[in-house]
Design brief:
With 367 residues, the chain is of the alpha/beta class. It folds into two domains: 213 residues, Alanine racemase (TIM Barrel, Alpha-Beta Barrel); 125 residues, Lyase, Ornithine Decarboxylase, Chain A, domain 1 (Beta Barrel), CATH 2.40.37.10. 29% of the residues lie in helices and 24% in strands. The strands form three sheets. Strands 1, 10, 11, 14, 15, 16, 17, 18, 19 and 20 form a ten-stranded mixed sheet that branches. Strand 18 and strand 19 form a beta hairpin. The radius of gyration is 24 Å and the shape is elongated. The model has no long low-confidence stretch (mean pLDDT 97). The structure holds pyridoxal-5'-phosphate. The site of pyridoxal-5'-phosphate (PLP) has 13 residues, from helix 9 and strand 9.
């Protein structure tokens, strides 16, 4: 055993295998999207693993995440996909971090920071083709590229957009967004303004729409072996890289009528053998009722309210369970399996939120 009360196991070989499957499928370079602590899998370790698999670009949401990668000695290109406050432009360029640019109001800030930068300041222009979130309207893109080309020491490395509905079988929205982007590319190409890296595809598009690959695909959820939605399947050979484990910390038999945990929302009906698991909502588990965990390869019900650091399980069907036994919250045990998607449906959310919600305090163990 490893000395942890609850921990995540992340299989680096599985991540490498997933990346290889996707690379083979798309045939274009991949940006590994590692925002939110590598979707809960651990920011720097995921990037190191992706680099081992041949990935040469990664994407984060915030500039702080990019700084963390640089502090860890990771020197591959990093793009901040989201908004960066004016005050951080200089630091970012000094560390060779590429920024997403989308508002003409930041042109002066960009020009000033680029002037001070020790090397060309790299940016990607983000265009909003229908997500209605971040991005310049396509009508402004041509003009912005022209103005950007006139700023000293700025290198417009890429241009991109993001799909709103690529994870659905319903295709018209994605096709319409794709057409807007392609039209824009044609327009800027003929003016000699097309940046070298055009990219649009998230995992869902990379798995289902070869026409959206362009020069690079931005893959998040799929590289961790999780499907973007119930309507988009992973490729053969792809598997979830993460599992969640804990150890039974206490077992006690309570007489009938004993209230279990906060609020006594569960009361024993007979003599009941109750086990304690050192996992709670402070780790990213949820307080919803009806949770299930695996012990000795069997499905065991969680009873009573989930606390910040602990939860209770009913062990009557499992007389052989002992203190110290392994509990699986996500993953396989024996022939049973709890997928992130199963927790997601119980928690009324989707797999992305389950893994991103795994708290920083849970130790990550890499195999
Ligand atoms: C998060 C994100 C991605 C990755 O999305 P997945 O569905 O996890 O593949 C790609 N592009 C942008 C702009 C993102 O914010």
């Amino acid at each position: 055993m490893n000395g942890y009360s609850n921990w995540l196991e992340i299989d680096r070989q599985v991540i490498i295998g997933n990346i290889e499957c996707i690379n083979q499928w798309t045939g274009v370079p991949m940006m590994a999207v590692v925002k939110a602590n590598g979707y809960g899998h651990g920011l720097t370790e995921v990037v190191r693993t992706a680099v081992e698999a041949g990935v040469r670009y990664c994407g984060v949401a915030r500039v702080e995440e990019a700084f963390e990668l640089r502090r860890a000695g990771i020197d591959i290109p990093v793009l901040v996909l989201g908004y960066t406050p004016d005050e951080r432009f200089g630091e970012a360029f000094a560390q060779n971090i590429s920024l997403t640019f989308f508002q003409p109001q930041q042109l002066d800030v960009l020009a000033a920071a680029a002037r001070e930068a020790p090397r060309p300041a790299k940016i990607h222009l983000k265009v909003d083709t229908g997500m209605s979130r971040l991005g310049a309207p396509p009508e402004l893109a041509y003009d912005m590229l022209q103005r950007l080309s006139e700023i000293e020491n700025v290198e417009v490395e890429g241009i991109f957009t993001h799909f709103a509905r690529a994870d659905e079988r319903y295709a018209p929205t994605t096709e319409w967004q794709l057409r807007k982007f392609t039209d824009l590319l044609a327009e800027i190409e003929s003016a000699g303004l097309r940046p070298p890296i055009a990219h649009t595809a998230n995992s869902a598009a990379a798995l289902t729409r070869p026409g959206a690959n362009f020069d690079m695909v931005r893959v998040g959820i799929a590289l961790y072996g999780l499907a973007p939605s119930a309507e988009v399947e992973l490729l053969e050979g792809m598997h979830p890289a993460l599992s969640w484990h804990a150890r039974l910390s206490h077992i006690y038999v309570y007489p009938p009528g004993s209230g279990i945990s906060y609020g006594h929302i569960y009361t024993t009906q007979e003599n009941e053998r109750i086990g304690v698991v050192p996992v709670g909502y402070g780790d990213g588990y949820r307080r919803e009722e009806g949770n299930i965990v695996l012990i000795h390869g069997r499905r065991v019900p969680v009873v009573g309210r989930v606390c910040m650091d602990q939860l209770m399980v009913r062990l009557d069907e499992l007389p052989e369970a002992e203190i110290g036994d392994e509990v699986v919250l996500i993953g396989e045990q024996g022939t049973e399996r709890i997928a992130a998607e199963e927790l997601a449906s119980r928690w009324n959310t989707f797999n992305y939120e389950v893994v991103c919600g795994l708290s920083a305090r849970v130790p990550r163990h890499y195999t």
